[in-house]
């Protein structure tokens, strides 16, 4: 391992003689990447995006982004000679007349779902492990932007076939746009070119879907990868892992071979889904007609929470300065998305403000070791999940024979109460897991060996935990806290003299207090009851 392998030195020398890039390649091909299963979640999103580009390119050869009307003369008999748009007719043509067209179309749709799912899981991994902290705040903001753009990309692509189901979603989009005060009518006119549905929406969405948003996505993904490469990858706590090193395998050949295999695995899964799992059967829905709507209409999963918010929101509108403000549409459209996306974008900076922690972090936290952060994340997931579930309140009502209004009112209460309950349960779970870790370090693990003492008492012998497990547990770091208490003369720190400063110190103390400090005990074979002590994290003066 002291010298690069010949497979690296050969091409490096060739390029160095011509471009002077040999040292750059030698250095970067040996870059070390850590090995942990959760780091593959981001790769799922990346490979899904690659598959989206490949399958999308195939579909563009035959799709016609036009609202011009034609009579369908293809091979799908139930719709033969039916009047429809060229967009819908070309989608049917791809599905039934182009060899492999239906497979590629379904692979494209499944890859889109997996792309958003992979990014969501990747974002949750970064959030729960604190991998967004300095120096990675900018990369975190890029990731939030990517997730937002992916939702818009999915919306525009979902609308292109111009079938009855996607038309219903497009109608909701138009209603949401018009609900925005002052600028709503202009946004609607920009999208639809006049009265809904008009003749311009499909061509405009097509341009946005295949050119504008993919170009921005490609640029942001490149920036995201470059920053990750320059700043080095985070790693989970463990033996010999510090803030100044990376323990793992080199990019070439280990990581490259593993990533190549994982890409093929992702491609294979999407191909199998496209082959055996039917998705978006547009021929069953028929062409879009503004006067009709499909029964049980449901959007793709990642837009379900907005659908749920619309269904739960009570009817509410007011007249203000000559404008009608429809809160029953405006709030569901903007508030849930605003809470989730704005909260994600601001959280690294809010946490830094609360804790005063401006150090660089290259070793991740275990979620249990920052219980408040983990509880906030689970509360947000619960909030999202309830809205997502109630986006299908009509299907729940029909299949489980529950009154529709009962499910709606349940959702209206659950969307507020559910996150609070989730927060409390998650916090107590994290504290319990920390106590279990402390017990493992101080008393060891159960060996299964029963020992009889001279006084006749039977005890179970405990043995020290395996070294890798122990080091993983010892990776816990105390959360910094700001000092807000008065000094010996009764004078509080400068930053804690205002109302905001006092609030900040109280939040910092609540966020950073360590209720279960880790201590290594002596393993003498006796199991003693552990009592959690209240400790204090690293404290910083507030200025």
From TrEMBL:
Residues in Cytochrome b/b6 N-terminal region profile domain copies: 11-237
GO CC, alphabetical: plasma membrane
Localization per Swiss-Prot or TrEMBL: Cell membrane
Region (Disordered): 517-543
Transport as UniProt keyword: yes
Keywords (A to Z) from UniProt: Cell membrane, Electron transport, Heme, Iron, Membrane, Metal-binding, Respiratory chain, Translocase, Transmembrane, Transmembrane helix, Transport
Origin: domain of life: Bacteria
GO MF, any single term: quinol-cytochrome-c reductase activity
PROSITE patterns: CYTB_NTER (PS51002)
Catalytic reactions on record: a quinol + 2 Fe(III)-[cytochrome c](out) = a quinone + 2 Fe(II)-[cytochrome c](out) + 2 H(+)(out)
Keyword Nucleotide-binding (UniProt): no
Main location: membrane
Signal peptide (UniProt feature, chain positions): none
Membrane topology: Multi-pass membrane protein
EC number(s) stated in the UniProt entry for this protein: 7.1.1.8
A biological process term (GO) from this entry: respiratory electron transport chain
Record's compositionally biased regions (Basic and acidic residues): 520-543
Sequence intervals crossing the membrane: 44-63, 109-128, 140-160, 205-230, 251-279, 329-350, 371-389, 409-427
UniProt enzyme class: translocase
Cofactor(s) listed: heme
PANTHER family given in the database record: CYTOCHROME B
Name by which UniProt lists this protein: Cytochrome bc1 complex cytochrome b subunit
Lineage, broadest ranks: Bacteria, Bacillati, Actinomycetota, Actinomycetes, Streptosporangiales
């Amino acid at each position: 391992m002291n010298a690069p392998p010949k497979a690296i030195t050969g091409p490096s020398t060739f390029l160095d003689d011509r471009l002077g890039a040999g040292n750059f390649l030698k250095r970067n091909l040996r870059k070390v990447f850590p090995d942990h299963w959760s780091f593959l979640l981001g790769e799922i999103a990346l490979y899904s995006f690659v598959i989206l580009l490949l399958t999308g390119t195939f579909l563009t050869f035959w799709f016609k982004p036009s609202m011009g009307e034609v009579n369908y003369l293809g091979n799908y008999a139930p719709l033969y000679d039916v009047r429809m748009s060229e967009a819908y007719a070309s989608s049917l043509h791809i599905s039934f007349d182009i060899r492999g067209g239906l497979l590629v179309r379904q692979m494209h749709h499944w890859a889109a779902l997996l792309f958003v799912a992979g990014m969501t899981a990747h974002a949750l991994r970064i959030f729960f492990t604190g991998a967004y902290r300095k120096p990675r705040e900018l990369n975190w903001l890029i990731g939030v932007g990517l997730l937002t753009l992916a939702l818009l990309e999915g919306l525009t692509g979902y609308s292109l076939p111009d079938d009855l189901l996607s038309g219903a979603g497009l109608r909701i989009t138009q209603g949401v746009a018009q609900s925005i005060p002052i600028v709503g009518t202009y946004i609607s006119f920009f999208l639809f070119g006049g009265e809904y549905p008009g003749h311009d929406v499909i061509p405009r969405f097509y341009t946005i879907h295949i050119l504008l948003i993919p170009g921005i996505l490609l640029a942001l993904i490149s920036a995201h990868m470059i920053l990750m490469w320059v700043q080095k990858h985070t790693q989970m706590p463990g033996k010999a892992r510090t803030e100044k090193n990376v323990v793992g395998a080199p990019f070439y050949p280990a990581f490259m071979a593993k990533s190549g295999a994982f890409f093929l695995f992702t491609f294979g899964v999407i191909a199998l889904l496209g082959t055996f799992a039917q998705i978006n059967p547009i021929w069953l829905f028929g062409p879009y007609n503004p006067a009709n709507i499909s029964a049980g209409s449901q959007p793709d999963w990642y837009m379900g929470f907005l659908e749920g918010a619309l269904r739960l929101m009570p009817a509410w509108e007011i007249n203000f300065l000559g404008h009608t403000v429809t809160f029953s549409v405006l709030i569901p459209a903007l508030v849930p998305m605003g809470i989730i996306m704005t909260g994600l974008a601001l959280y690294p900076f809010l946490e830094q403000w609360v804790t005063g922690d401006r150090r660089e972090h290259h070793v991740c936290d275990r979620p249990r070791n920052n219980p408040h952060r983990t509880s906030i994340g689970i509360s947000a997931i619960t909030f999202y999940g309830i809205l997502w579930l109630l986006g299908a309140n009509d299907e729940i009502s029909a299949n489980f024979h529950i009154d529709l209004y009962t499910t709606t009112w349940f959702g209206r209460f659950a969307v507020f109460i559910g996150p609070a309950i989730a927060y409390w349960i998650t916090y107590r779970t994290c504290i319990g897991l920390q106590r279990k870790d402390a017990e493992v370090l101080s008393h060891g693990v159960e060996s299964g060996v029963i020992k009889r003492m001279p006084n006749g008492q039977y005890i179970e012998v405990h043995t020290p935990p395996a070294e890798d497990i122990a080091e993983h547990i010892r990776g816990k770091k105390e959360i910094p806290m700001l000092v807000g208490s008065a000094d010996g003369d009764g004078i509080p720190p400068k930053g804690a003299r205002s109302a905001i400063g006092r609030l900040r110190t109280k939040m910092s103390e609540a966020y950073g207090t360590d209720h279960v400090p880790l201590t290594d005990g002596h393993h003498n074979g006796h199991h003693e009851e552990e009592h959690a002590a209240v400790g204090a994290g690293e404290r910083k003066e507030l200025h």
